[in-house]
Write a structure and sequence with these properties.
The structure is a single chain. The protein is an alpha+beta fold. The chain has one domain: GMP Synthetase, Chain A, domain 3 (2-Layer Sandwich), CATH 3.30.300. Helices cover 27% and strands 17% of the residues. The protein is built from three helices and three strands; from the N terminus they run αββαβα. A three-stranded mixed β-sheet has the order 1-2-3, with helices on one face. Helix 2 links the parallel strand 2 and strand 3. The protein is globular, with a radius of gyration of 15 Å. The chain starts with 7 loop residues before the first helix and ends with a helix. InterPro entries: Fe-S_Maturation_MIP18, FSCA_dom_sf, MIP18-like. This is MIP18 family-like domain-containing protein. It comes from Kordia algicida OT-1. Pfam families: FeS_assembly_P.
C-alpha cells in the first residue's frame, strides 16, 4: 500500500487563487489583496484552515463571507475539508493591503 503525499505548497497556491476570486462587497478589491487573509494551513489529510479577519467587527458580511470562502475552497478537488476562523488580533488596517490594492483604491 503506497502513501499518497500531497504537495501542500501547490495546493496552497491553488487556494490563494480561489481566495483572489472573492471580493469584499464594499471595496472593489479581492479579500487576499485586501490583507484579510492572515494564514492558510493545509494538513496531510488535505484539510484546510484559513485564518482571516474582517475590515471591522461590524462588517455586514461577517456571517456570509466565511461560508462563501469555505464553499469555494472545498470546491477544489484536492481539498478534503475547509474551515475559516475569524480573528481580530491583530486588527485589520490599510497597511495590510497589497501595493496593488492600495493603488486600486487610490491610496498610493
Amino acid at each position: 500500500m503506497s502513501e499518497i503525499t500531497i504537495d501542500t505548497d501547490a495546493l496552497g497556491e491553488k487556494i490563494v487563487r480561489v481566495l483572489k476570486t472573492i471580493y469584499d462587497p464594499e471595496i472593489p478589491v479581492d479579500i487576499y489583496e485586501l490583507g484579510l487573509i492572515y494564514d492558510v494551513f493545509v494538513n496531510e489529510n488535505s484539510d484546510v484552515k484559513i485564518l482571516m479577519t474582517l475590515t471591522s467587527p461590524n462588517c455586514p458580511v461577517a456571517e456570509t463571507l466565511p461560508l462563501e470562502i469555505e464553499e469555494k475552497v472545498k470546491s477544489l478537488k484536492e481539498v478534503n475539508n475547509a474551515t475559516v476562523e475569524i480573528t481580530f488580533d491583530p486588527p485589520w488596517d490599510k497597511d495590510l493591503m497589497s501595493e496593488e490594492a492600495k493603488l486600486e483604491l487610490g491610496l498610493l
